[in-house]
Specification:
The protein contains 12 helices and 6 strands. With about 350 residues, the protein is mainly alpha-helical. It has a two-stranded antiparallel ribbon with strand order 1-2.
């Protein structure tokens, strides 16, 4: 019986008139949208303003794309430089080739610039956006599926990935391989859920939620990288990205432990985003007791009925009795009504 393997798309580019629509680019765009959406919700829940995450992402995303491409070109320079290679291909980002380590490193620089301009502490921002980055990676890996790239060793497992493509040198590759893109996509979804759970369970702050993301992703990337068969540099029997995963895992764990001892808990909600103080809307984060008192004072100032009530209550009883007509005792005639001066009786 022939097994039903995972098919690969017949193409990764779709034409809309003269405009090429590349599935790889759409996967990245979807990932960015998901990351900003989830990051904004988490940022507001932590006390930040509604649009801060998106404003900082304007800096972080371009830096991340450049960093990811630079890392790929540097670590796989043999694909673009040397005999028979065209260095211009290094600029063709739409054909695939983004290194997550470079994207995170240079993206952090962009985020730092954006956060500094907004007066936002970068560790707090990183904690809010961490699970969103993992989900963005999960979306972006499907771009590798459309490009039929970065798959693993041959396999006969029922979830094997069918590959049928022609390389740039004319070599045709046909077979069934491990769908490492799918493994990493699912792993990243798990990492996002882990970060969200750990953040709620341990009240993580000061960059520790981001450290959990880095450590958890590094573990998955290590074993998935070991399954890939694409060309890569090796050192002491391991691929370059496996060594990178080891180093980032160790650095993340050390950061998690050290910062957990030095700065336990989470940042105060009113200390992470100056824009939240200027935006009193519910989306700007939780309000403080001072805000509630100020609001009560303002309401009292706007309601004139409260002053009228106080005047009525404080009015002396003698004043009330002056306005109440007297009733004569039984058997006595009522006093005649005296006309006001200047009027006719």
């Amino acid at each position: 019986m022939e097994l039903a393997y995972i098919p690969s798309p017949s193409r990764g580019v779709y034409e809309l008139g003269p405009i090429p629509l590349r599935a790889y680019a759409f996967c990245i765009i979807i990932g960015v949208v998901v990351a900003v959406w989830l990051g904004s919700k988490r940022w507001v829940a932590r006390g930040g303003a509604k649009h801060t995450v998106g404003d900082i992402a304007v800096w972080a995303v371009p830096f991340g794309l450049v960093g990811g491409r630079l890392y790929h070109v540097i670590t796989d320079n043999q694909l673009y430089f040397g005999e028979g290679r065209d260095p211009v291909d290094a600029l063709k980002i739409w054909e695939g080739g983004l290194g997550i380590w470079g994207a995170i490193a240079l993206g952090a620089v962009g985020a730092w610039i954006g956060a500094r301009r907004r007066g936002v502490p970068l560790p707090a921002y990183a904690d809010a956006i961490a699970p969103g980055i993992a989900l963005a990676q999960a979306c972006g890996r499907w771009g590798n599926w459309f490009n039929q790239e970065l798959y693993g060793r041959s396999t006969d497992l029922p979830w094997g990935l069918e590959i049928d493509k022609v390389e740039s040198d004319g070599t045709r590759i046909v077979g069934v391989f491990h769908p490492t893109f799918l493994y990493e996509s699912l792993w990243c979804v798990g990492v996002a859920l882990l970060v969200i759970w750990a953040d709620r369970r341990f009240n993580l702050g000061h960059g520790r939620a981001f450290a959990v993301y880095v450590a958890a992703y590094s573990v998955g990337r290590f074993w998935i990288e070991g399954m890939r068969i694409d060309e890569a540099h090796h050192f002491l029997g391991l691929r370059l990205n496996e060594w990178t995963a080891i180093l980032t895992f160790v650095a993340a764990v050390v950061y998690l432990v050290v910062v957990g001892k030095l700065r336990p808990g989470r940042e105060a909600p009113d200390s992470i985003d100056p824009a939240a103080k200027a935006d009193p809307s519910p989306e700007a984060g939780p309000s403080t007791d001072a805000d509630a008192d100020a609001g009560a004072d303002a309401d009292a100032a706007k309601d004139p009925s409260s002053d009228a009530d106080e005047l009525t209550v404080s009015q002396p009883e003698s004043a009330k009795s002056d306005r109440t007509p007297s009733v004569p005792p039984a058997g006595q005639p009522a006093d005649p009504v005296r006309p006001e001066p200047g009027t006719k009786a």
